[in-house]
Queue: 3 jobs
Job 1
Amino acid sequence: MKDTTDIRSLLNRYWEGETTLEEERRLKAFFSNENIPEDLQRDAALFRALRAEQASRMPDKIRVVRPGWRFWRYRAAAAAVVLLLVAGFWIGQKQPDPVITQNKPVEKTALTTPGMQQVAKPIEPTTQAQPTSASPKRKRITPRADSVVLAKEDTCEDPEEALAEIRAALALVSTKMNKSTKTLEKGFQEVEHVDILIKRFGG
Amino acid sequence: MNWTIFHEQVYPIRHKLYRFALRITGCGSEAEDVVQEVLERVWKSPEAKSADVSNWEAWCMSLTRNRSLDQVRANARRRTVPLDSLSTQPAGADSAWATETRDLAEQARRLMQALPEKQRLVMHLRDVEELSYEEIAQVLDISMEQVKVGLHRARKAVREKMLAVEAHSAVGA
């Protein structure tokens, strides 16, 4: 072979523990050839053993699943449930249980602000202003005889109070949702830690 | 533990960890268990710890070494055969020894496996995993001087044993 002298020199330095990593790679490459001189066959055996060792692989029994994708179905389901709850709450706030009245006078809060009065006007065309002694802001509403009126039952007489009530309710829901989200996240993390994302096939 | 670091720097070296564990324990299934435990431990390591690790490979190799040695001690069975106890003389013309000597690579592997622990690990990390002296020192928690001395002695021992086997084979032929 051409560079046997150089290789023999490298080999001597290898056995003395004086070669660099690059030089050791050269030796491995050289001894991976088939045409090795007879007197170097024993040395070649060692380097072949080293190369075989380098090529050995761990049995593919371990797999890793990215944490964010591991429970995507459960997460999607949880997100859908939360979305439905939020939507339901929002709709419920906007349209509470209606009270069906027929041919009966309905107590209706008339708001004193000009803008609110304008809003209230279209739904009570036959209304006659009847200020009561208990509350000068209330009006007696008399629907048409053949009409069915859907009216809201008010529990607050003061708009400011109603606004405060709504704010409090929304704050409560927000707090509960935040708490639930945190609990859910914590649960996911614990499950991930238990499984460690590394699962043995059949294990 | 950061997923990106785990996926890009830790998981790909699992084969390297496995070979190292196998070199210490001498048992494939035990080496697999060791690697799995090491990967789990690395994954569970807190972010603060993760930030401190500059060389993930060396750190994982060090964990693998410690866990493998624990495994060996727990099992109380070392599979290493002392180098001197390996016979260099054929036991018979039709013995298993005659078959083994035909597979020189396998013989060389056995000679390496028969080295004392420190020499065996130094030679494995250098000649199989191609780590620098500094990395080997970090993994084995020894000085670089000890690495160089250990490597020199390991190669010298393997070389002498190979020559002895060759000489006995020539005499027997």
Job 2
Amino acid sequence: MKEIIQKLVAIPGPSGFEGRVRDAIQNEVKPYADSVQIDALGNLIVTKGKKSANGKRIMLAAHMDEIGVIATHIDKKGFVRFSNLGYLFARNCMAAHVSFLNGARGVVNGDHLEDASKLHSLDQFFIDVGATSPKDCPVKIGDVGVFERPVIDLGKRLISKALDDRIGCAILVKAIQQIKESPNELVFVFTTQEEVSNRGATPAAYRVDPDLGLAVDVTDVGDTPTGKMEVSLGKGPAIKVKDGGMIADPRVVRWMTDTAEKAGIPYQMEILLGGTTDARTIQLTRAGVPTGCLSIPTRYIHSPAEMIDLEDVENSLTLLLDLLRNPVEIK
Amino acid sequence: MTEKPLTIDNEQISLLEKLCNAVGVSGCEGEIRKIIFAELESVADEIKVDALGNVLVTRLAHTGTKPLRVMLDAHMDEVGFMIVADEGEGLYSFETVGGIDERQLPGKPVWVGSEHIPGVIGAKPIHLVEPEERLSAISKSSLRIDIGPGGAGKVKVGDYAAFATNFMQIGPSLRGKALDDRLGVATLIELVKHAPANVTLLVSFAVQEEIGGRGARVAAYSFDPNLAIAVDSTPAFDLPREDNEENTVYNCRLGAGPAIYLSDAGTVSDPRLIRLITQTAEALSIPYQFRQPGGGGTDAGAIHKVRAGIPSVSISIPGRYAHTANLLANTGDWQNTLQLLHAVLEKLTPSVLAGERD
């Protein structure tokens, strides 16, 4: 598991430019899949199994994209102004290392502020790529990049960029590789552009037209010094009840908690106040889809140094495999 | 190119003038629909109005066995106002429709209702303004549309109003109230009239863009195209800064050619289409620019997520002072946009989308 996580987080894939992540995932899953498709928006759609009499077509979604930057202007001294792809906290930008998909690298710094107690806003930052003019600048308007940060392996826990949501991708990859028999038709969708309002999952869910939807994504925790939320790292996968964009189908929530109880897998209930996942858009597809979300507790989401607990990840995979292996009763 | 490049001459300018002086605030686009029908009824293979009021025009390909189905979209609506209360004596309170900066409303003349009754958004004269009042913006709730006591009863709650600005051509410049997006509408009318034979054009003249791409979404569902290009107007803020520092947030520049969208608040444009557009422009020496990535949006934001997903991009004609009573655009930018779009359509083949998205 650690190996696939480390592999996936290292690949740059800002929203709208997920091709390299997609290639890597495709390599991992192709031998285990019945079919692999790439749609108009770049979603990777991997199908496994057929729907039997007591089975359902289940859409699983994990997003490939990560928070990134896009160049908006190269000034006359060769500094790169940029805008965000996805919800980027300006406070996390100062002194961050940036790596562009075209190979250029640089460091973020900000305009001089008269009041040193103030934080820079996004438009007061620039990326220094070592250029002296627009002419010798290796970055052009529209070039995209991501924050660069080495993975720190703490043994039980990992710190990395892009765990949101490569951790979900890693779990789905493992599920595809490990699941043998299922009465369900399993459609694993590695989605694009989740961080810019679930734009990939919307058409993907329309195409898949599932009986049941389940997103696998990260969720916030409250176990930091002044945190308030009732989810902690290390206490098991979180089963989403509600977030800023979705009320999970209570029948799906029961299916998830019952399965976890039966298998003795630790779990936590998640009520996330802000933000949402691909589950929202799956739920609202066509005439509506019963949908839930399996969340991996994650600290410091949308920063270049997010943290997860590997036991949570293993338990998430175990729970997911249990959910998918058996006939699903939604009641 | 297979024929003489399309140009902007008197004929195109007078159509733009007609389109721009007509009133079509979001949700009330009938006047624009009428002009489009008059222009295209005889050249379209099919022209119809859908449930939301979009004009959907089909122009079939004449070559190839399985031609690409290409959606072109321009929105008919403009920003404006809606009358919300009759306060007697020809005075009406109003709400804005679409994104309008309320600070620039006082003193602006408007046309109200289907009869285009002239009115004015009045403001307290400076003689009577207290010094401290000048420190804050005049709120919309304190403003009224005044059509004079003679107009009492001529306007009903629910009537629309628009900026009363007559179109003008000033040398190389175009000035009008609704160039966003009548410039796009006029461009697509030209493209239907001079449609390349290799693709089937599915043209939506969309309603309600200014309030969230509502018309384009259902138009895209109807058409179910292979790809889509939204043709719109985008703000140029290419003005010098007060402190003479470099302007790094100009969005796009007037006179620098069609503004191609890479990413905005609604869409990350399809990189395959961006490549085709820029390569085409370079091959024909048509100037172009990238609109600065960031906020804002076009109908592409609604279109690209329809059904199983539609590769989409936007190209805009730059305009200064968007969403005010006067937008200022450049005839050269318009002509370059028209020529670029025409050339791109001619070059479109299924191979453009054969590879995966980046």
Job 3
Amino acid sequence: MSSALSARAVIAPRALIVWFSLLLLPALPFMSKFYLLLAFDALLFGTVAMALDLLMGYTGLVSFGHAAFFGLGAYASAIVLERGIVSLWACLAFAVLVVGLYALVVSFFATARRGIYFALLTLIFAEVVYTFFRYTQTFGGSDGIQGVPSPRVLGEFAIDTPLRNYYLVLVYLGLAYLACRVLVTSHFGRVLVAIRENEDRARFLGYNVQRYKMAVCMISALVTGLGGALYPGRSAFATPDLMLWTVSGEFIIMVMIGGLGTLAGPVVGGAFFVLLQEKVSSYVDWYFIVIGLVLILIVLFMPRGLLGIRELLGGRRWRTTA
Amino acid sequence: MDYLVAVLLPQLLHGLVFGAALGLLALGLTVVFGLLGVMNFAHGELYMLGAYAGIAVIGATHSFWIALVVAPLAVGAVGAVTEVTTLRPLYRREPLYGLILTFGLALVFREGARQIWGGDMRRIAPPFTGSTPLLGMTYPNYRLFLLAASSLLLLAIWLFFTKTRAGILVRAAVQDAEMLDGLGVNVPRVFTLTFAGSAALAALAGLLLAPVFTVYPQMGVEMILLAFIVVILGGMGSMGGSVIAAFVIGLAQSLLTLWMNPQRVAIAIFAIMIVILILRPRGFFGREGVLE
């Protein structure tokens, strides 16, 4: 296979078109600062949902603790910024360290178990982290770390406006999408799908199943944690509420809305969730009912998520495997 | 000796009281999990609805005892309707979908309660006050009643599952629903009634604990985590294990409070669970291959 062809297999032209049009999004006349920040959230949580999809959609593991990875990344970044070290690279490096160590422990214990045990173990570990930050005064207790300065890249260039934050997260989304696509189209990704389809058979074929599960768990956690590390740059805070287990549930909702095992789907799902929450909550204060109902309806009638609509309409089948 | 009577003994009793109520909650969770393969995230919300339904009935009738009968029945009916409309279509799908569905249900119930009853903390006055001298100390009557009532209920549930035909059918469905279906039992009806029963039990636990705790829309969120821990510790699908684990967690929680602040207790409970799971990966009574 020529290299041009395999590059097409990794990144569909359509994905490139979407990404480049997102570059132009801020040029639209109605894109105020408010909408730029909303777009930032949409893309950031879209990226997190995509990372979770590596676990849920490809490996068949449901993590109910991804909020802890996200929150730890945010805290790591905020701690670095609070100390006056305003380099984005320092924030990201520290986030990788912290989230990586935590994810190593969690994935070691959680991947030893299947199905519901995995979900509940990730949930309990995340609750430990949440409780720790919620009640440790060094890290601000329930208020978290507030008012941190903006991070800088390349000397004195500060990521301090909504526009710059938007482009930062857009670049991150692009890189993360590329990395995830490379991963799922590789041999590694095929083993993950094999594990999802039949774990015992994968084991009998000689694969060290737990090592694969740990690896994908770590990758998913790191992509999520790095996303979290970008959060204080936008909001100037990191609070324990970012780590509530209901937030992990929201991440799962995003993946379900978008469609399991599609990578692009969860990005759409995350963006859709953020926009839905924003739109609905500005009209009514019972938006959680709306979100809960949306989730229930999707599970019942559109298990393939938003990207599955085309299938319902008789369109081309969306490929669930790489 | 003074320390023992004045400090340790009341905490020990608190632990038993809490453990028994937690057992009621965890039992419903275990049975539904065994039957449907679904960890019911909305279970905490059914517990919460029980307390609010109790407040509503008490408001109308001024009787805690009527509420204790009517509220669980009402929540049980809600459970039955929920099961038929949302969980039944998912029987043949991956349990993952059921798990996620119940998360959506939990959001709807929680927010619904906040819309109907408001977000502030409420209390239910205990149906009787006063305390009884006991082993050199005095202990509130209501808590003694709570302990007796929950223990009797647990006993009744045990008798139901071992002595009655209905209970044996439920256990058979946990074991092998397809076989039961093949034997001509209406399995979906067993599922629905069990789900309703588990909802009623959760509601009962919510109402029984309401005079001791406070009632607010998020009250189920904290309890459900403890209940999950109990179910995991007891061993997935093991009813006896759940009850024993409930007492262990209840006692651990109240005894640890003597030496630590509540936050540390929460972390300690998580730590206990993680250690036990490392030592005994399937909990106290989990069997190999059950829902793994």
